[in-house]
């Protein structure tokens, strides 16, 4: 995508076909004009601008090794800097805010599923892809209760379950005896695995309902990743070490841990 856009821009600016453009003609001025074009005319964000520049840099480094006569021009072009930008601060919820979002389920199937979904996201700090991929067989409630999560790169980890989560899980399984070991633990109405957008939508509805008692949530942008960050912060506040936290959230090698942290 970066090259399609750049070659189209260079063709108009240099009035040459892409096949006729030489390395010395890819000057810092041309690259800077292209980057300004992306931001001002195409409305791209700074992240996108920097991603396009990274693609051009990779090509120039490759080409410079194969055309030594253009090394000086390539070196000048590589001097175009990335643009700095402010990274948004990812917030987290207080325990009271988190419990308000989780809420209390009514008697409907959907409400109870959503309640368990949010509770499990908070308990485990799981990514959305991990939580929707949980099957009934991944839940162990006897002895030290835990949940088996399948993370990135086929890594697996076990996360302890809080007593309150275990109670709700038992109630959910009693209510849904038709669920088989290979079934999605939290399916949609059709019995299939929930989608990412479905989880985001259900969270948005829960946040909207929580605003009745917690009006400050109206000014917050809360996503599933906010809950993951909330879990991390609350575990740290409860005394969980950084190494255990990394294992809990799946940031390290697929080491199994059953260390119990009562943040419930």
Briefly note the structural class of the backbone: mainly alpha
Largest beta-sheet characterization: 3 strands, antiparallel
The rounded Rg comes to 25 Å
Helical percentage: 40-55%
Tally of helical runs: 11
Task: Note the topology.
Blueprint: H1 2-14, H2 28-40, H3 46-64, H4 71-77, H5 95-102, H6 109-124, H7 128-132, E1 139-140, E2 146-150, E3 156-160, H8 163-175, H9 196-210, H10 224-237, H11 242-249
Antiparallel strand pairs: 1-2, 2-3
Helix pairs in contact: 2-3, 3-4, 5-9, 6-8, 6-10
Summarize the structure.
With 264 residues, the protein is mostly helical. The chain contains eleven helices and three strands; from the N terminus they run H-H-H-H-H-H-H-E-E-E-H-H-H-H.
Question: What would your notes on this structure say?
Answer:
The chain has 264 residues and is mostly helical. The protein has helices spanning 2-14, 28-40, 46-64, 71-77, 95-102, 109-124, 128-132, 163-175, 196-210, 224-237, 242-249; strands at residues 139-140, 146-150, 156-160. Strands 1-2-3 form a 3-stranded antiparallel β-sheet, with no helix packed on it. Helix 3 (46-64) packs antiparallel against helix 4 (71-77).
Key attributes of the depicted protein:
disordered C terminus, 11 helices, 264 residues, mainly alpha
């Amino acid at each position: 995508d970066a090259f399609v856009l750049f070659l189209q821009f260079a063709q108009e600016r240099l009035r040459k076909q892409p096949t006729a453009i030489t390395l010395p003609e890819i000057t810092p001025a041309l690259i800077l004009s292209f980057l300004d074009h992306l931001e001002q005319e195409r409305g791209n964000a700074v992240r996108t601008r920097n991603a396009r520049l990274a693609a051009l840099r990779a090509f120039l480094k490759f080409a410079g090794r194969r055309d030594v006569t253009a090394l000086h021009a390539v070196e000048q072009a590589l001097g175009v800097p990335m643009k700095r930008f402010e990274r948004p601060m990812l917030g987290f919820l207080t325990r009271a805010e988190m419990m308000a979002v989780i809420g209390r389920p009514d008697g409907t199937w959907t409400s109870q599923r959503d309640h368990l979904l949010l509770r499990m996201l908070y308990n485990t700090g799981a990514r959305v892809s991990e939580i929707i991929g949980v099957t009934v067989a991944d839940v162990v409630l006897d002895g030290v209760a835990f949940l088996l999560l399948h993370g990135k790169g086929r890594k697996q980890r076990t996360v302890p379950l809080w007593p309150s989560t275990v109670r709700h899980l038992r109630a959910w399984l009693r209510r849904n005896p038709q669920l088989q070991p290979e079934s999605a633990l939290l399916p949609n109405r059709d019995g299939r695995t929930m989608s990412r957008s479905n989880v985001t939508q259900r969270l948005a509805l829960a946040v909207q309902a929580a605003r009745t008692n917690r009006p400050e949530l109206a000014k917050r942008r809360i996503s599933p990743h906010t809950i993951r960050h909330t879990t991390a912060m609350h575990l740290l506040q409860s005394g969980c070490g950084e190494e255990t936290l990394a294992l809990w959230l799946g940031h390290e090698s697929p080491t199994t841990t059953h260390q119990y942290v009562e943040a419930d």
